[in-house]
Amino acid sequence: MRTPVTLLSASAAVLTAYGYLFGQWADLHDQRFAVLDVTREWIARPLGLGEDFGPLGLMLLLVAAGYAAAAGRSPRELYPIAALVVVLHLLPPTAGLVPLGWFAVLTLVGFLLARGTHLLPPGYRWTGQLAQLVLALNAVALTGFVPELPAAAAFYPLFVAGQLLHTNRAGLLPAWGCGLLIAAVLAVVSIADRVVPELDGWWYPLAATYAVLLGAVAFLLAGPTAERIAANPVVRWLAERVWWLIPLYAAVGHPLAELLPHPAGLVLATAGAGLLAEAGHRGSRLLFQRTREAV
Questions:
Q1: Mean pLDDT score across all residues of the chain
Q2: Which helix (H) or strand (E) holds 52?
């Protein structure tokens, strides 16, 4: 179980860096990079990915997180991140300082809902996952009433997809049932694409389909080669710190990138986000260790 989760998480760290650090910074500052132009023209657009690979990276991470949640993994890395994001959002001077902070909060909510689903009898856990999907659909329907919630909720079905893949792998849901429910996952994303204005034109249902297919391949066909790649120190580092890296790419990376001419500024931004992610990861581990000792 750890090998596919590690590979998907590390891939998400790289794809979100490309999309939300390099690609987004270049667009905001009207900069042109040959690598970005070629990748967009010959890879992203033919694949139907209208917003570089950032959303695809988020979706891959949600599939991995949903699988890990269904397997009983603890989301301990998410608690301090989500708490920090909520505090910053509630303070007027820092509101909006972490543009991707909602992602950690959404995933933490998913882990808590998955924990509730885990209380159901094993053969009926799919009903709890279906209920989560219905909850996401209702959140999407709040478009125009609750700002920002519907757009975030549109990503949640990918977390449900990860849970469904684990339920199938555990022998608790037949392949045909898993396939039907995953079709419902993609249907909710498609509905959100039609009714949520912020998602219009970005082809998120197609990115969601890629994320589900890649997740299914990773979990169902993992073998010795995948294990060797997942054991690589760089891959493990990215996978273990991805939850810190994602909010830091824009919140810290963009300001750092402006301090020096490119490409030196982007190198500084990458290094700064990486160092702060390392500090956050070590700090959260120390916090939980001290809390466990106190209890």
A1: 92
A2: strand 50-53
